[in-house]
Each structure stands twice: as C-alpha cells, then as structure tokens.
Specification:
Elements (H helix, E strand, L loop, with lengths): L5 H10 L1 E5 L4 H17 L8 E8 L5 H7 L3 H9 L4 E14 L26 E6 L11 E3 L3 H12 L3 H4 L12 E2 L7 E5 L4 E3 L9 E10 L6 H6 L6 H5 L18 E3 L1 H4 L3
Helix pairs in contact: 2-3
Length: about 270
Amino acid sequence: MVRLSKRELREFGVRGYVVLRNVIPPAKLTAASNEIDRLVNEQPPPKDYVGHHFYWLSTLNGGPLAALFNKTPLRSLAQSLIAPGEIEIAFDQVQVALNIPPFSHRPGGHHLDGYQEGQPTPATFTMLAGVLMSEQKIENAGNLWVWPGTHRTHGAFFRERGPDALVEAKGYPQIELPEPCQILGGPGDVLLAHYMLGHNIGGNYASEKVRRAVYFRLRRVGHEHRWRECLCDELLEFDAVRAAGGPDRVGGGVTSAVLPHHRTYGSVYGGS
C-alpha cells in the first residue's frame, strides 16, 4: 500500500491539501483521456461557449474514469490520510471538469461544496481528489484556486456557529481569507484536498487549450452519520494526520509554514 509520508501528512494538516506528481500510470491516463474525448464528441459544449463545463457520471459500472481511483495508487494515497478508516467514493459519482478558453475570470472568493437549495442536509464528504488530465503548469490556465489553511478556519467557524451554518451561508461561509494559490501540474498529477478547504474555479486566459480534470468526492465510511461533528473538528476523520502531528485547533488564520507540496511518483509508476 502506497502511503503519504509523515511530512506530507503534516503538510496536509497545515495547508489542507497536497499535490502529488505522476501518480496515475500512463496507460490508465490514456484510457481516461480517450473516454473524455468520447464524452465531448457525443455531448459537446454549446458552440462558442467559454468557461467551466461539467460531466457527471456514475462510478458503479466501472470504466476508465472510475479506474483512475479504483485501479491506481490514488486510492491508497487517499486512504493513508484517514487510516485506519476506510475510504469510498461519495455519491458513486465522478466529475469531468472542463475549463474552456478564453475565460477571463478571477474568483472573488471561495466556496465549500455540498450546499443544495431547499435541502436541509448538505452533501458533505471527507476529501476531494483531483486528477489533472492536461497541462496546467502556468497560472490562469484553467487552474483550480485554493485558499491554504482554510479547512482550519472553517472548523473554527463551525465550532462557533454550529454545523447548520454551512446551509445558512449557502456554501459561502464568511471567513478571513489568506492569499489564494493556483494548483499547478501536468497530466497524471493528483490533488488531495480537505473537504473544508476553500476553493473555486479559476479563469483560462493565459492558455489556448481546454483545461481537463477529473474529480472524485471521497468520504470515510460512515461519514454521513457524523458530518456535523466533522464540520466542527477538521481532523475528526483524519486519524493519520492527527497522529503525524497535525496542527492544533485554531480560532482563525493560518499557521505560517513553508513546506514543499510536490512529491513525484514517476520513478515508481512510470509517469512521464
């Protein structure tokens, strides 16, 4: 079983995410890319459309997109964040996310997933796993934006106001935000991000290519029965992160730390 190192676990505790290089083997990456080609050809975005365009698919029947999680080191890497708990794909769903240029957009702030109008119980989960399917090595090329450390600030927010504040805020809790970062990487790289890490869609105006990514919402088995407690304790489901010396609870803000957040798996798994 491939695991995150203690340093990477601590980094996740501080920043709320890690980026891992060349996790997806080339053959799995090619098969998934071909499947995205098929989706786009059969259900193309509207003519002259720019910006984000999503496809939501079931993972129950397997296939090359589900295999990005089920049949690569991604599963065990995600599992190592919550060990000894068990990880599963939340909602049996995978998202293909396109960002079509030229998209002149800069997000004004962050959001949390799971809010649904008219639904009293938000569709929370444990972590987001993103597989980069295209080159995103420069900023403003369709990159995902994240606000480091905000999983901790959100935890403090919900401890003060209660877990129902997520629905009351409609997925946009008003917290103090640090400077955002854009996720950089190439095909086969993976992002693992805490559910409560503030994030948003970025623009795609520095590139002429469509940004492609595949996202899995992952949850620790039993999460749906303890989601309220999870919002109020950001490390409740992350035993391995806490054991590695994850940060103490905070009332707000972000611990000042400079940690490298790129690990390469290419030498092990033949990534390019």
